[in-house]
Amino acid sequence: MTGDRVNVALIGGGGREHALALAISRSPRLGTLYVSHPQNPGLASLGRPIDVPVSAREAYRLEQFCDRHGIGLVVIGPEEPLAEGLADKVRGPGRMVFGPGADGARLEADKAWAKQLMRSASIPTAEARTFTDPEAALAYARSRPEPPVIKAAGLAKGKGVVVPATAAEAAEAIERMMVKKEFGAAGREVVIEERLDGPEVSVMALVDGRSIYVLETSQDHKRLLDGDKGPNTGGMGAVCPSPRVDDALMARVEREVLVPTVDALRREGIEYRGVLYAGLMLTHGGPKVLEFNCRFGDPECQAIVSRLESDVIDLMEATCRGTLDSCEIAWRSGASCCVVVAAPGYPNEPRAGLPIAGLDRAGAVPGVTVYHAGTARDREGRVVTAGGRVLGVTGVGSSAAEARARAYEACGLIQFEGMQYRRDIGAPAAPARVRAKV
Ligand code: AMP
Ligand code: GLY
Which of 30, 107, 236, 339 is an S-S bond match for 292, by CB 3.0 to 4.6 Å? Predict the structure, then answer.
């Protein structure tokens, strides 16, 4: 069937999915694109709505929709439906699903299990222990010479990790997760790990069950404010490639992290098909895994996909069919820079309903694409804020500096009340402090 036209259903409603939708819509192989979140005006402009509820619990409704519309490829963007097993349920004869099943998605959805897998395969990661009893967790945290990092084992929308500055903050985080149950079931089990230090990079690879194809590197900027200050967020911007990663480091990450992870999954009987994302810290002792995700990063995806020249449908299909070893991925040379424009109040209480001006002018800056993330149309048809991370303003250019300048020129043309964005995405980095014990 390779080379045929294919109807695609895209699940997810953020900036990552808008970027994927645009790449999919550029493929000459696309028949019709259907999107699960047409409230996002970016997605609405590229696809027809999937007019049934999309959930793993009622997966039969999506299955029926796919049957009715001859969908040959389902692309699942976010982690929740993957962790809930949506991929397992809608995969079927004549229908491929890009994204791992629930067993593989456990790498992201169960940090305790992921740690165990890493340990069993000697994959470099922070030393850690897992607890279900709050008293034992508190005692262990107190016994550490430095305040350790506290992580809810389950999915917590990127908020389940606390890097405490003091022992008291560590204890408070444990209380909040395990006693007050702020993250519900996600905090029933807690991973307490050694704090590492160093620059972070994201490495993503396509995995087809056996082979892996490493994508261009990227670098997320997780803190809200310039200079990596303020609270952690889902990501305030990303550049591609990461200036921190050269070919030698990439080969090391592939050899020490990605290949052993896929091998360990196979030993567990798991055929992982989709994106494997390793969040790494570059310590004195080499790259160490902070987390795995079972999907494209957001906003890393926006930066990476903006440079993709190959046909994304071909790549997704090869991932699903197990034929990645015969693929070559072509990238636009140069670099990209995605600046996230967030709503006032983000990350705690973002304000919705604020009209956004200047989108057309921003999108007309050469080399710029404005991806919609948390946006919607109000009753008058105006584009308004509808989420925390509102837009991913992404520039591509022949150099990192050009990509960055273009993204920021476009950001300067966008206006809404209280908009916030970092001014230092992709800025030349200050020398990193590295203080991990190895
Ligand atoms: P995660 O979701 O596990 O990647 O954690 C979110 C953020 O917390 C990471 O991007 C890091 O900035 C930070 N973090 C996680 N684990 C550690 C660690 N062991 N040492 C230092 N910082 C960490
Ligand atoms: N940007 C980090 C993530 O997608 O998890």
Answer: 107
